[in-house]
Amino acid sequence: MVHLEESTPVTHPAVTVIVPVFNAERHVRETLDSIAGQTLRNLEVIVVDDGSSDASIAIVEEFAARDPRVRLVTGPAQGSAGAARNTGLRLARGDYLAFLDADDLFVPTMLEKLHTKATIDDADIVMTAFSSFSDVTGKPEAVGRRGRLHANLLPAKTPFSPQDISDHIFTAPHTTVWNKMYKADYVRRIGLQFEPVRRSNDAYFNMMALAQAQALSYVDEPLVLYRASNKDSLQGSQSEADLSWADATRAVARDLKAKGIYEPFRRAMIQRVATRSFDRLSKATTVESFIEMYDVVRHSLFTEFEVDLADERDFPNPDVGRQVAEFLSLPLTEWLHSTPIGARVRVAGSSPTRATPSTSTIAQSSGSSGDSEHTRDATDRGDQVRRAKKRKPDVTVIVRVRDSSSRIKECLRSVLGQKDVNLQVVCVFSRPPEHILSRLREFARQDSRISLVRVKRGEDAPADTGLAAAKGRYVIEIDSDDRWVSKFLAPLVRQADDAAADAVIFDAFSFLDGDWMHGWAIARPVPPRRRNTPAPRAVPGSNYLPEMRHSRHLGRHAGVMLVNRDHLNRVHADDTADLRGNDSVRTLNILLHSERVLRVHTAVLGRRVRKHQGRAADDAATARSELETYVSLRHAGSNIDVLPAHKEQIDALADAALGRATAHFSKLPRRARQDLLTGSDEPTRLAYRRMADARAAEAKNAR
Length: 703
Hints:
Elements: E1 15-21, H1 28-36, E2 43-49, H2 56-66, E3 70-74, H3 81-91, E4 96-99, E5 105-106, H4 110-121, E6 125-134, E7 140-141, E8 180-183, H5 184-189, H6 201-212, E9 216-228, H7 244-258, H8 266-282, H9 287-304, H10 318-329, H11 332-336, H12 340-349, H13 359-365, H14 378-389, E10 395-400, H15 408-416, E11 423-429, H16 434-446, E12 450-454, H17 462-469, E13 474-479, E14 483-484, H18 489-499, E15 503-512, H19 516-522, H20 545-550, E16 561-564, H21 565-573, H22 583-592, E17 597-609, H23 616-639, H24 644-666, H25 670-675, H26 682-702
Parallel strand pairs: 1-2, 1-4, 2-3, 6-9, 10-11, 10-13, 11-12, 15-17
Antiparallel strand pairs: 4-8, 5-9, 6-7, 6-8, 13-16, 14-17, 15-16
């Protein structure tokens, strides 16, 4: 025991240590000894009793009688360490704040080292590492990866800002409060308090404090001793299905968004949700509890925090991104039987008295049903996935989801209904309305071939994002407003294989929204090639430049091409190719870089035309689009090294786009024509002036 006779009351403490206590008679004396024995003597200790019914109060009173720096106060008795800590916050007089649970210990130099570092760096928060020991044996225990101070992820030079560690701010420092020291004025200035909940209240306080700080620092030494395996503590009595960490994370995301500072920490938040979710799954001791947690993670948490929309680039740790991708791509049965976490669960769930449930039991427990045409029994889906994994997809279909699309179900049905072809469907979007996003997620849950990918800021074309996720031998695009009209894809792939084609061009048709049968009559399926007839001849893509000028669809929509993925990647890697422009420019570049292009004269893509198209707003949108096409084609013609004949064709394509833009531009009132320039870049403004001059010349000639 520490000798306390020399301790005297402190009028202006450097540090206030707040200790919440609830039925901690076994350990609270040792905890207070570790605080009283600190080399930093100028401190106060506020012990907040939260309704203890054991000898805790008597022990603290005895301690306070011998050390005037220790004060016992009565807490709200809510069974919440957070509410008790808030009581201590209101009474604290120290320049800095430290927290310690009633069963853990400070190393004797902890407060002095953190206070010195905080003073030198003028830091709002100083953090430190900690070590762990067993409550049962007293021997040291390994601190798991999630519990360490990851100093390798922190800047060597201190202090630093939250933005300097934005990707790791919720993982590198650990989300407890007892391994940190906080500047009291900073905590009061931002009005921060603990959430009055039973568990994970320190996670909210800590994450909000870290994200809003001006200066952070750390001491890379284990200065706190964490007591593990204590059945009396909240952590030690945590249930398998506990999701208090998720509630705290949800509250942090909500409040950071309300303050307008969430976006810099989005990647860190996604990684936190993923790692904590997998941690909870790994702690399941029965298959039943695993299935319960799996459903919460897969269909609730990953959806709410948009983990299901992230790709590997969204995760600061790529290994976590790959683990998430595997989790989302496999049905429950497949994941349970093919991953290390699943293996641990199966071992934990198998015992002489409790056998592991069968696959059919898992399928029933996971809520599989036949209510939807796309829903399959979990076992059947597992078999399908295993078969599909033996070979790569024949085709990756990139569905470009429009923000206002209400026809996504119709589009996906036409895609998923293709027969005799192995598909990967990548739905690419930016910020669709919530009802469309919910619909997409439902489709992805029902069909494992579908994956959802959000276009990242700074990426010009959704197709670029989709191509990065593509695994098929061929790639094809479709807008979510459109649909395919026949089971054309399998024969198209066979023809592409027979001709060793870089790309296959097919036809499209337009149909009025609500008048599908008229469009259906126009469509023609891809005819099978008769035996002993020669395969269609593949020719250089440049042969189709004249057709681009006159075709209503080829020159304006990339969805009328099936392109070999390896070839498309080579085109992307070619510095002379520009695939980041609009559809016309991308189609042009693919054709110019393709030596073997096959032409199939059959209309299988239905392009939807809205009934209201033709209004001023549509004329303005079309004029802007065609104007951008003109500028892009002019730029391409000037920068691509092509034959003179091809240069003439590109110029003709650009002039045709300008003509279409002028036609729609002429229909606009003066104010709308001025509005058209809003946000336009300099090349587009030059093109606009050329249009205006052409219109003025036409008016003059008419007079």
